[in-house]
Backbone:
C-alpha cells in the first residue's frame, strides 16, 4: 500500500491566478512547485475572493502594526487604503479557507507573505507606507488555530523538509 503524499493548500496567486488586489497573479517559479503540481498535490485558494472581495480591489492592511490574531480577537481591523473596513470579509474568507483545506485533505498551507490574509512571516503595518513587520494575516492565524501548518512562499525548502518528516 502506497501512502498518498499530502496535499498543500496554496495561495491561488502563487499559481499565477489573477486574484490579488491589483488583479494580477504572483506566480512562484520553483522546481518544488513544478513537482508538486505534476503530482497533483497543490490546491489553490484565494481567501479574499472567498470572503466576497472583488478583484481588483483597494489594497488593505491590518491597522496599528497588529496581526491576524488581533483581528480575530477584535483588537484590530483590516482597512483598505480608502478607509473601508473589510475585516468581516477577511475573517469570512479565512474561515472558508480552513474549511476548504479540511475538505481537500490539506494539513499544510503555502501562503504568500506580506498579505493581510495570507502573510505568515511578515505583513505590512497598516500605514500603507510599505513598512513591514513580523506577523501573520487573518487566514494564516485561522489556519494555525485549526492545526494546519503554515509556510510562506519564502520557505519552500522548510515545507519540503516538514512534509518528508510527517510521511
Residues:
Amino acid at each position: 500500500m502506497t501512502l498518498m503524499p499530502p496535499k498543500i493548500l496554496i495561495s491561488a496567486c502563487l499559481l499565477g491566478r489573477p486574484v490579488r488586489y491589483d488583479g494580477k497573479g504572483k506566480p512562484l517559479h520553483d522546481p518544488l512547485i513544478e513537482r508538486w503540481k505534476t503530482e497533483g498535490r497543490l490546491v489553490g485558494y484565494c481567501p479574499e475572493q472567498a470572503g466576497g472581495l472583488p478583484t481588483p480591489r483597494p489594497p488593505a492592511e491590518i491597522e496599528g502594526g497588529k496581526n491576524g490574531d488581533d483581528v480575530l480577537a477584535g483588537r484590530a481591523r483590516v482597512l483598505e487604503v480608502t478607509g473601508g473596513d473589510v475585516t468581516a470579509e477577511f475573517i469570512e474568507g479565512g474561515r472558508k479557507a480552513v474549511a476548504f483545506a479540511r475538505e481537500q485533505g490539506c494539513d499544510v498551507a503555502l501562503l504568500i507573505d506580506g498579505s493581510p490574509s495570507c502573510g505568515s512571516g511578515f505583513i505590512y503595518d497598516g500605514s500603507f507606507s510599505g513598512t513591514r513587520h513580523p506577523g501573520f494575516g487573518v487566514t494564516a492565524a485561522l489556519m494555525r488555530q485549526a492545526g494546519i501548518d503554515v509556510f510562506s512562499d519564502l520557505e519552500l525548502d522548510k515545507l519540503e523538509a516538514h512534509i518528508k518528516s510527517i510521511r
Notes: The longest strand covers residues 106-111. The chain is about 30% helix and 20% strand. The radius of gyration is 15 Å. The beta strands are 7-11, 42-45, 60-62, 78-80, 106-111, 122-124, 132-134, 149-152.
